[in-house]
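Usage example:
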Amino acid sequence: MPVYTAPVRDMQFILNDVMNIQSADIPGYADLDPEFLAAILNECGKLTADVLAPLNAIGDTQGCTLENGVVRTPDGFKDAFEQVKEGGWTGIDCDPEFGGQGLPYLIGTAVGEMFASSNMAFGMYQGLTHGAYSAIHAHGTQEQKETYLPKMVSCDWTGTMNLTEPHCGTDLGLMRTKAEPQADGTFKITGQKIFISAGEHDMSDNIIHLVLAKIPGGPEGVKGISLFIVPKFLVNDDGSLGARNSLSVGKIEEKMGIHGNATCVMNYDGATGYLLGQEHKGMRAMFTMMNEARLGVGLQGLAQAEVAYQNALAYAKDRLQGRDVTGAKNPDGPADPLIVHPDIRRNLMDQKSFIEGARALIFWAAQMIDQHHRSNDAQADGLVSLLIPVIKGFLTDRGFDMAVQAQQVYGGHGYIEEWGMSQFARDARIAMIYEGANGVQALDLVGRKLATDGGKHVMAFFEIVKSFIAENKEMDEEFQAAFLAPLKQASKDLQAATMYFMQSGTKNPNDALAGSYDYMHLFGHTALGFMWARMAKVAKTALENGTDDAAFNKTKLTTGHYYMAKQLPATGALLAKITAGSTPVMALTADQF
Amino acid sequence: MPVYTAPVRDMQFILNDVMNIQSADIPGYADLDPEFLAAILNECGKLTADVLAPLNAIGDTQGCTLENGVVRTPDGFKDAFEQVKEGGWTGIDCDPEFGGQGLPYLIGTAVGEMFASSNMAFGMYQGLTHGAYSAIHAHGTQEQKETYLPKMVSCDWTGTMNLTEPHCGTDLGLMRTKAEPQADGTFKITGQKIFISAGEHDMSDNIIHLVLAKIPGGPEGVKGISLFIVPKFLVNDDGSLGARNSLSVGKIEEKMGIHGNATCVMNYDGATGYLLGQEHKGMRAMFTMMNEARLGVGLQGLAQAEVAYQNALAYAKDRLQGRDVTGAKNPDGPADPLIVHPDIRRNLMDQKSFIEGARALIFWAAQMIDQHHRSNDAQADGLVSLLIPVIKGFLTDRGFDMAVQAQQVYGGHGYIEEWGMSQFARDARIAMIYEGANGVQALDLVGRKLATDGGKHVMAFFEIVKSFIAENKEMDEEFQAAFLAPLKQASKDLQAATMYFMQSGTKNPNDALAGSYDYMHLFGHTALGFMWARMAKVAKTALENGTDDAAFNKTKLTTGHYYMAKQLPATGALLAKITAGSTPVMALTADQF
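Running the assembly step on the lines above writes:
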């Protein structure tokens, strides 16, 4: 049975030592002194490890069941949800005006990682509520906010997002769900939505569905889509629950993973809906939450890698099999632990160096989201918008790969469900797909974000990396060779790929699009290389200054060295693939395949 | 619901056009004229597509059930097994002396791919029987052969391999199962074995377990292991079934995939066993079958990629979503099919170019196994033994990756079990683990096979590639640039890595072992690059000679170009990772992780 321990120490290192959040000059950050931070992280670590992690396998085995229109969540979920609500975790970074705790999004992100590691399917109930909260908070009228937000902040009511229909996923312009205006200003929503996570369940008194639909007579395609609030139970003027709305769950899907979360087909049969934001501006309203939603999914990739790694590491230390070729390490035992074997270490170090680099990248992005929201910093918004598809695509791809590698450490036992490693891989798999499949992230990155504001944001990224290298040119040779030189090379490869797209892609857009996936990975590796160089510098300086946690900082430096030496060389191959252009990709007609 | 069509045309191209098997001067190959070959492949294609493929999802959903010691296979499996037996497919490459059809192993491999694509869990029942058949055929007494083989060739009796115990997988020296000699020359086998595929089921009259166990008083570790025949029902002198043996199934495992195959815990309680081969030489007896067993698993990697690709391709042509950025391809429809999008093509071309290259590599290896067995060709045996860990490790890793990529083409539907793409990925996952986890393959390759006979076999591989390049130096510039130059570069990278291991690895074995996994992939890419160069040459020549199947040969050339341009650049990065050495891998103590 797998276990989970929240990586509090590592989070503290990033937040306190690398990012120095307390002095970051962002409203609210000054309050985040190390003691307060430690209290939050430790408390959340305890809750997720003791309450949520033990329910993870139960959620996977039991799944959700639908009977007579009622969805039952797995045993223990409801009780655990009550504990999460009582602890105030559901509204940690929500607006105090509506009962939230008003902490920065960055803290919500750290806490969110723990929820996603300990029980991804469970965490989605509150995660989706948070997404719906954000949409109403950003686009709702004051009345709508007052009606829905307090109950959603507390998760007495949960939320959903309804985008996909059977015939349209990425291409929402094909949407058929209709919203017919009524005399009283409401709309009658009619249509079928699929893949609705937490669409129906037994853990909340009401479910607030946000539904994309078309008002008849509006513009064609995505420009005619509007967003609606469609509650399961209508809400009376006094805030009490009224009539049941005309919507129902058609079925729940049998999925590869996240069995503890009910993925519903939702049928709207003239359900009462309330316009959220402006008519026909539904896509725009959705997009304002996109950065957070996609960061949240990237976080799931990291989170599943983290919990899978923890268990693989424990197994590698415990399981006795074979002998160290350079001499027995456990001579009195029947064999040495797995961890003596170089290839097992290669596997574990891949995981560890990815996870810690990815965590730093996500935290940096979360800080930029705070800078944007709390300081109205447009530059931070531009840069984080560029990084979001990288975070979503690269971290979920690699997070899944790492969960699969962790499973591999267990040998045959990794394939047996009882050991729990299969669940991590199966759960992690969805993160590559939902909230925009990773191919769509690559398209967003190369087809949209690169060129935004005349390419200003990617230039800003290069400038930041360049400045870091320049600022640290006095560091010793060892650091230069281990960190700065590989970072410089990766950044150079990324710049060359960017240049190739600008030159070749303008003549032939397919040259850019055919290389977009490789570019997303090239960017991801470079970004992680940059995070590692930053962290290594902090660790090295701490060691030179005689830190009282030498062990932690030494390990950090060594892990960073691994990433630079053993992962970053991928950038050269990715550049070569990109500059091979689109001809090999596009040469076949559809019939020739 | 996924479908399967046997890739007969592609197999014919490799066997007839590339390998020219009929004139290969291997006993039995001269009979393989194109008509005969077509008849076999088409017949098997029909059986696997019409009978086995439709049972694949049923097997996954129902799984096997254990009740009162009896294992029930999924609905339809038993009937299908009868059809497979009636068609003579179970003994296609078995010895005619025992009822087999005596066809080359190469043909068994082509047929085996179809079984593994259409229904991997089902195919394992006969696949494991074939493995046990081979062991008895190679090491049994004439009496043993006559007692067991005819029934195993027909699959009236099936077979299993019992190696793993709860505390020992790779490290079989830790084995505890005992074999106590009896006065009548038999042994009493006592112990528990786990992960026994097809250990118990309802499709055969008897199950012949091959069990590794230790005779008390024998040498320590793997040198004291012997191999035993332990039938479920003892066999009377007249060949009829006698008493039930003292063995039973303890439980069947809940697994990530291959649910249609019963993975059993087997308990032996003083069961009667018969020594197979010599006392204490059990490991050697197992190893004689290792090449075939591991090639068979590599084949599963390819096979799952093939069937996943077929369905992803069909979906990409059918599903309408978005528009071609260079102009609508389906202007009268609501959207263009997915296949217009460059990143979808990148995904599909990754799959297609892997699959066809992998098939050529496996068929080449199967031919070398025939050369060894039928012509006693030690050189072929040496080279194929070198390639086997590459085939097992690289093809199952990449096969799984490709099944995951195929799943990705489906977007959200890929995650829903009903669509079948999840099963391909889940089933493919086991191939990276069993028959020696892929890390063990890498160790076998670098720690054992590279140095065999003074490195003669890896040198032979380089020589073959070099000769091919030299023989084709008169080909036109386009071919040189697209195929020979990348092949040369990949081969150079592989040679550099080999040299690095020889120089650095002798001083520090960890330098070789820490890079072994990357080396396995570097070798795999180079081998597939070589296969593609060979196939491209044949296709190009056919086109120049005015072949009547220009479409097929053009597609082949284009697909090969894709592999060389878009996959082979990986070799440079792998070399860089390898030559970064073992320091970053080994630097942390176990406690520092």
